[in-house]
Design brief:
Layout lengths: L3 E6 L2 H6 L5 H11 L5 E7 L6 E6 L20 H7 L5 E5 L1 H12 L8 E6 L7 H11 L7 E7 L2 E6 L4 E5 H6 L6 H5 L10 E4 L8 E5 L2 H12 L3 E4 L3 H28 L4 H8 L7 H5 L9 H5 L12 H9 L8 H5 L6 H18 L1
Parallel strand pairs: 2-4, 4-5, 5-9
Antiparallel strand pairs: 1-10, 1-11, 2-3, 6-7, 7-8, 9-10
Helix pairs in contact: 3-4
């Protein structure tokens, strides 16, 4: 088997609900049916497309509820696995930053990778659900509740309405107006999750098929065995398929570098502006608690920060947190998402991380 394959589910119900070929759902079904995992950790739609709920599925018949993409959610599975599933063998659907979090936690002896199948999903970025509803109302001129499906494809954010109609607007136009993808997603260079066992998606795929890049021996065995047992069909992608996928990835990486320059050089926050942000801090510890790679049982912030002082001294509170996480920052943006005072925390951690990375590899 080559490094790249096109795959398609053989289950008709999965194919009906699938985004592109249903291979990911079919692979999860194979793992559950063959009792190779205790459960599958993934997302399913809650009340609407803006409500992505983490679920742990142990019955393969329930997997159909998770088919399709949810771009208006930004859950990171790293800490969920660490906190709740250490004693389980699991399969998990991962964005690139999920896979980064899981691997960072494995380096810190918090997760055993032998117990995990990571099935990666190509990621052009996610959108804050509250902002997505505002964006749809403002730019698409429709009630956000009338949207039944969304997708990001060919540089556009596309919505499907209850009446079956589609509307699409270019992502860059939305982002020029301060909407579109989350800021950390705009800066992210890792679009294809080669840090997972398989990297799956529609980039370069033929209609009705999933393009899969095999990234580990575990992933290779999974695809081979799932095909042998009739859960998926596979075929070789053409050179054109591979080139299209490569071109999409290259263009998205170029765009990410443009955003990095824009965020960290051209319009980076001044010292005076940072001080205003630090003065907003209410020391709720939300940034720490949401961070997938914060693992200390006895957090330094609670012992060193002055009791009761709000706002805390930024050199003590945010400086200590920065020293703890910036070298391992995965740019997931969880800290920024949960901050009730809207402090752009991911800006500073990601910027420091990139500087450390540059010093290590180029210094």
């Amino acid at each position: 088997m080559s490094k790249y394959v096109l795959a398609k589910a053989t289950n008709e119900e999965i194919l009906k609900r699938a985004e592109c070929g249903g291979a990911v759902t079919a692979l999860f079904k194979y793992l559950l049916d063959k009792k190779l995992v205790d459960g599958v950790l993934t997302l399913k739609k809650g009340e609407d497309i803006y409500d992505g709920i983490p679920v742990f599925i142990t019955n393969s018949e329930e997997l159909i509820e998770t088919a399709g993409s949810l771009h208006c959610t930004s859950t990171n599975f790293g800490k969920i696995i660490k906190n709740y599933f250490l004693d389980k063998k699991i399969a998990v659907s991962v964005k690139p930053c999920d896979a980064m979090a899981i691997r960072e936690l494995a380096k810190l002896n918090q997760i055993n990778l032998d117990n995990i199948y990571m099935i990666g999903l190509n990621c052009g970025g996610t959108i804050n659900p509250i902002k997505a509803m505002k964006m749809i109302k403002l730019f698409y001129k429709v009630d956000p509740k009338d949207v039944v499906k969304e997708e990001i494809d060919k540089g556009k954010f596309i919505i499907k309405l209850k009446n079956g109609k589609y509307k699409a607007i270019k992502i860059d136009k939305l982002e020029e107006k301060g909407f579109g993808r989350r800021k950390n997603c705009q800066r992210c260079e890792l679009k294809i999750p080669r840090n997972a066992d398989l990297a799956c998606g529609n980039w370069g795929a033929e209609k009705g098929w999933t393009f899969i890049e095999i990234c580990s021996e575990k992933g290779r065995n999974l695809v081979e065995n799932a095909e042998k047992d009739g859960y998926i069909k596979i075929k070789e992608p053409s050179k054109k398929n591979i080139e299209i996928r490569k071109k999409i990835e290259e263009n998205m990486i170029k765009l990410a570098k443009i955003f990095q320059k824009r965020h960290f050089e051209e319009s980076y926050i001044s010292i005076e502006e940072w001080q205003k942000y630090w003065n907003r801090c209410i020391k709720c510890y939300g940034c720490r608690d949401a961070c997938p790679i914060c693992i200390c049982n006895n957090c330094k912030l609670e012992f060193i920060s002055e009791n009761g002082k709000i706002p805390p001294d930024p050199a003590i509170f945010h400086g200590i947190r920065l020293s703890c996480v910036s070298k391992n920052c995965i740019n997931c943006g969880q800290c920024e998402d949960v901050c009730p005072m809207e402090i752009p925390l991911a800006y500073i951690t990601h910027r420091v991380y990139l500087k450390i990375k540059k010093a290590l590899y180029l210094g």
